[in-house]
Fold this protein.
Amino acid sequence: MLAYVARLTVVSALQMLAITLLAFLVIHLAPGEPVVLQQELQTTQSPQQRQTLRELYGLDKPLHVQYGVWLNRLVRLDLGRSFSPDGRPVWEKIRERIPVTLSLNLAEICLIYLTAVPLGVFAAVRRHSLFDRLATVFVFIGFATPDFWLALLLMILFGVQLGWLPISGLRSLNWEYLAPAAQAWDLVTHLVLPIFIGAFGGLAGLSRFMRGSMLEVIRQDYIRTAQAKGLPERVVFYKHALRNAVLPIVTILGLSLPGLIGGSVIVESVFAIPGMGQLAVQSVFARDYPVVMGLLTIGAGLTLVGNRLADVCYGIVDPRIRIAGRSA
């Protein structure tokens, strides 16, 4: 088992290196530079000042040298400093946004799993029923509806027309003057729409996946044997079948780890939530290379960690996977 984990670790390190190299090249080869953007904002900037800024940011060096410098800092857990006028450390800017994104995505994942698993199980048990058909229609709507369009639609309905929910930020302007209970309620009302929008697409997909997994388990011989023995349907489906059908869902939960930090770019941007997704959008528009690379590195790292955790869990559950990986 240790050799299996060590092999996965080496593969992950190589994949991480390849991902950072590819991301670095894509970002730096894209049109536009931070100094060009600053020149557009400051029309009085001379070519000499522009060259000075390029040297200050290290953009005058060849790409492989810039990547080597960035990688050397990354090994020392230093993500560098932002190109924005404040010049703050990248990690400091990301760290202050993590709690918001983490809380938002945790709430979305809880909503997805608490709703999708019962929905998928019941649709499988009542296959071809009216509920199953309605659930199928819901899934297609969930897949086909763009998040930003649905967000704008609900903002107009519940925020503008009905005035029930706020449509931007995490707090009202008078939040500091509210009682503690009112502050908590104000926060909840601000989060209702973002959490629903963030969970809507995932809810549709996971419920469909849960339905398929449950149907596959129901067709197994041991389930038919349990039914032939006369066990109640509730025991057969919700005790024997559900336990095995939910295993792939647990694996997907491990792979959802990157989403906890990666953040919902669309949701945070539409609802003006100060999380990592909003920071990513702002950094891309500002050509803030260090911040973009920092966010991509953290997202890629967590994606690899999630995948490797899933691989290790598979190896623990099924030793044949470890043996197959060793012989490959």
